[in-house]
Amino acid sequence: MSGDADGGQGSGSQGSGTQDTGSESGRGSGSRATDDVLDAVGPRLRALRRRRGITLAELAAETGISESTLSRLESGRRRATLELLLPLARRYDVPLDDLVGAPRTGDPRIHLKPVRRFGMIFVPLSRRPGGIHAFKMIIPARPEPLAPTPQTHEGHEWVYVLSGRLRLVLGDRDLVLPPGEAAEFDTSLPHWLGSADGGAVELLILFGPHGMRAHVRADPTGPDTDPDRA
């Protein structure tokens, strides 16, 4: 009986060894898959940076990551970590999943994350880096309308008013757009968007790089006299 018991223990030990081998094999397969994902991060980061027209020196200054570290990260000589990827995702304004090439879950819903800036709410409606970006913009109601503070920046903007009355200050022009009206302008001109009467305003915004315009054009100042639509 003692021999049988010893034999059983020996068999159990061997079985445990077989399971450990399988577990190590599984871990090895998972590790290889992780390595493959991380190996693809560097080329993806380099391609994204070049599409945005950003130098390594500029990216280093904006993210706080040294130029040499960024270079090694893009070439695959430095392993990607969350500490490195988070500031890059913020700088490029893309989800972290896009940087590591994580597969889509199959859920077609867009998980919107509103951003508050300048007292207004921006809801991103597009995800792809570069090109034209789409936003829903909400200007909250206020007891008194704000005084215009025009700003300038590179790019081109197209706006469409969903509800409320939008005040658009563009250079020396001061316009009021009711629901259903649209406007398009070069953002290198001093411009400001706000409520015309203190009420809430909702609008759609398409913003693209300088020279990239939406195909629809409307002149909020009066009848359709745009030669592009003739």
Compact summary:
The chain has helices at residues 2-39, 41-52, 56-63, 67-75, 82-92, 96-100, and strands at residues 115-117, 120-124, 133-139, 156-163, 166-170, 173-177, 182-186, 191-195, 201-208. It has 230 residues and is α+β, with helices and mostly antiparallel strands. The radius of gyration is 27 Å and the shape is elongated.
- The chain-level structural class is alpha+beta
What series of H and E elements makes up the topology?
HHHHHHEEEEEEEEE
Strand order of the largest sheet: 1-2-3-9-4-7
Give the helix tally: 6
Total count of strands: 9
Q: Specify the overall morphology.
A: elongated
Residue-averaged pLDDT: 76
List unreliable stretches of 5+ residues: 1-27, 211-230
Question: Distance between termini?
Answer: 102 Å
Query: Mind telling me the C-alpha Rg?
Result: 27 Å
Q: How much of the polypeptide forms β-strand, as a percent range? A: 15-25%
The portion of residues assigned to helices is 25-40%
Taking the sheet with the most strands, its summary is: 6 strands, antiparallel
Walkthrough of the structure:
This protein is α+β, with helices and mostly antiparallel strands and 230 residues long. Helix content is 36%, strand content 22%. It has a 6-stranded antiparallel β-sheet, with no helix packed on it. A hairpin with a 2-residue loop joins strand 1 and strand 2 (120-124). Helix 2 packs across helix 4. The chain is elongated.
